[in-house]
Amino acid sequence: MATKLPKVPIVIVGMGWVGGIIAAELTKAGHKVVGLERGKMRSMNDYFHVHDELRYAQRYELMQDLSKETVTFRHNEKMRSLPMRSYGSFLLGDGLGGAGVHWNGQYFRFLPYDFQIKTKTVERYGKSKIPDGMIIQDWGITYDELEPYFVKYEQMAGISGEPEVNEKHRGKMSKPFPTPPMKKSPAMKMFEDAAKSLNLSPYAMSSANLSQDYTNPDGIQRGACQYCAFCERFGCEYGAKADPTVTVIPVAQKTGNLEIRTHANVTKVIHNGGKATGVVYVNTPTGEEFEQPADIVILASFVFSNVKLLLHSKLGKPYNPQSGTGVVGRNYAYQILGASSTGFFDDKEFNTFAGAGALGSCLDDFNGDNFDHADLNFLHGGNIAYTQTGKRPIQNNSTPSGTPMWGPDFKKQSLQYANRSLTVSIQGACMPYRHHYLDLDPVYKDSLGNPLIRMTFDFEEQDRELVKFLSGKTDAIMKAMNATKVDTASEIKTYNIVPYQSTHNTGGAVMGDDPSISTVNNYLQMWDAENVFVVGASAFAHNSGYNPTATVGALAYRAAEGIMKYMEKGGSLV
């Protein structure tokens, strides 16, 4: 029997980027908030002297314990799903700050095309361009409507970037980035020169790794990046990487209006008559169960956790792929990688051991609808980039194709090219399909006895064609960089849960203006429960050719605004 606690005005489930942003905005406005985080407490002090590649990059110190909770996976409904028991395709963050602690810091606003993808595709190419089974849809918001919230995130995080953006390929910015771009390495300059020689439009990647010391509008002071190359899978000991635990969460804590409860694993949203009345959570060290009544419930977890909680709570209509009805679990999408070109240089050596998570140059000539798709068998595209994130010794050992996997020649080539290889790669957009979705697994359960979330997904012809096309572009760029030998990956077949690919999972509780195909409106307020807000990448109706964090952050700021509007007048916000 759960112990019933005194009612609180607002409860937030998950204290990563989304929970931190919303908590900061609400507490600054004087509202009392309880934040429930299933992992442990964390601060910048925990990041000191942690340049341990084995512990963090290989043994996943900052990640969720898969023996207690994981996801199950299958390609299609005819297959038996099986649990992911060791980390591979994506990494699930755990503890205060969530995945915002171990991200690289690469920052991209989604394109104007993304938010109105169905409308703009049909206008340009006609309905027949959308293949059978693909269920792209508009997001119920435009880029221009969301633009001010991107600015709020950028000013808070101190995003570093070029003051001028190519508005032909990207959305207009009403305010420049608050800090200048990061340093340009020789390899970045080679990439940019090669791209320009091909009449492309490269630019320095926008970065949540500070290029200089910065004080944000909330008075948070952070130091500049040291280019130590320990970003992805690590917390930043300098505080240079924007992270919820060094930006928004301290602001909320300083107000005295935020109570954080760690080791609080929320298992259910309690609801009645179109409204939530609170949540149930388990204190994981003791096993005690608590009921936390609340006026407003905000789900601010990772994609899988948000969707799992909705389904387990029977809140919102579950998606049915056979009929195409229902919304919770619909429009799951991943990130399409696979196109890349690695160049090996006999006449040049690079300091690739140094770097930063978002140190790089990239281009959007083949992203979104920036190029003509009339004669192509895919929609959207991807960002093409050279990034110098730092080649840590355990994870990196590039050798040319044809090199033996062991023996004296393997050792010779490994030493020869340790600092003489560069890779140009893509992040490709992933479109939703009717048969790609999330639901509860009927067999496997977590450590608390609740069903695991099940992922049904595979690569489509759309994805294979996208990779084939973009690999030709990466190959051309690398050859223009004058590599001695170029190895290009140009195809993908079926999706596999291993090896690591990207943590950019999206969808399952998507936003829109039609309740029959969306779970939440453009304030991330549930259609089926007006005092529940489901915020995060679960709201994405598809995944773009970019990292999702910028758009997650912008939507969190808009949701915070919506929550305060709801507190004033109640009811649906749209």
Automatic annotation (TrEMBL):
Swiss-Prot/TrEMBL keywords: FAD, Flavoprotein, Oxidoreductase
InterPro entries assigned to the protein according to its UniProt record, in alphabetical order:
FAD/NAD-bd_sf, GMC_OxRdtase_N, GMC_OxRtase_C
Q: From what superkingdom does this record's organism come?
A: Bacteria
Pfam families named in the record = GMC_oxred_C, GMC_oxred_N
Q: Which residue numbers delimit the Glucose-methanol-choline oxidoreductase C-terminal domain?
A: 438-556
Span of domain Glucose-methanol-choline oxidoreductase N-terminal: 183-332
Residue ranges for the region (Disordered) are 163-182
User: What does the record give under GO molecular function?
Assistant: flavin adenine dinucleotide binding; oxidoreductase activity, acting on CH-OH group of donors
Q: Which PANTHER family match?
A: LONG-CHAIN-ALCOHOL OXIDASE (PTHR46056)
Record's family?
Answer: Belongs to the GMC oxidoreductase family.
Write the protein's name: GMC family oxidoreductase
Recorded source organism is Paenibacillus protaetiae
